[in-house]
Design goal:
With 149 residues, the chain is α/β, with parallel strands linked by helices. The chain has helices spanning 13-23, 43-51, 78-88, 108-113, 140-145, and strands at 6-8, 27-31, 37-42, 71-72, 92-96, 102-107.
């Protein structure tokens, strides 16, 4: 398992952000001193705490998600995990053993790369426009006065 994926609840926001950067998973797993799973922490949790006036030295004990999704290893089903991750758009889904410790985890990218899930159809049908432009040298005198859209 990745070293930087796990943080303790007494870690500072700064140290947790460093771990988030190194793990590059979008989400970290928060554990206690006995390595039992407590919840998850993402950059949004840290950002909201900073906006509310917390400092980078503040502990993450009050800001991590204590109601994070998880599955038990007993009766584990990969299809159930896939459905949960894709439906809830989870960055990470931990699988816990009998003691409540993380035995394995699944990242969203695992299911998106999987052949069975690569044919997912997204319901969002928002039209988009991609605009590209250059320096405006062809119509230089005009673009000096009016900006190009």
């Amino acid at each position: 398992m990745k070293k930087y994926l796990f943080v303790k609840k007494n870690f500072s926001i700064k140290k947790s952000l460093d771990y988030l950067e190194k793990a590059s998973t979008g989400c970290l797993l928060v554990i206690n001193d006995e390595n039992k799973f407590l919840g998850t922490l993402n950059d949004g949790d840290c950002r909201r705490a900073l906006i509310k006036g917390k400092t980078l030295k503040t502990s993450i004990s009050d800001i991590y998600n204590k109601k994070a999704y998880k599955l038990k290893s007993k009766g584990f089903n990969i299809n159930k995990a896939r459905e949960l991750v894709l439906k809830k758009k989870l960055d990470i889904l931990p699988i816990l053993d009998k003691q409540g410790k993380v035995s394995k985890y699944f990242l969203l990218s695992y299911f998106l790369k999987n052949k069975k899930t690569s044919k997912i159809k997204f319901k969002n049908k928002t039209p988009i426009i991609i605009m590209a432009g250059g320096k405006g040298t062809r119509m230089k005198t005009f673009t000096n006065i009016f900006p190009k859209p």
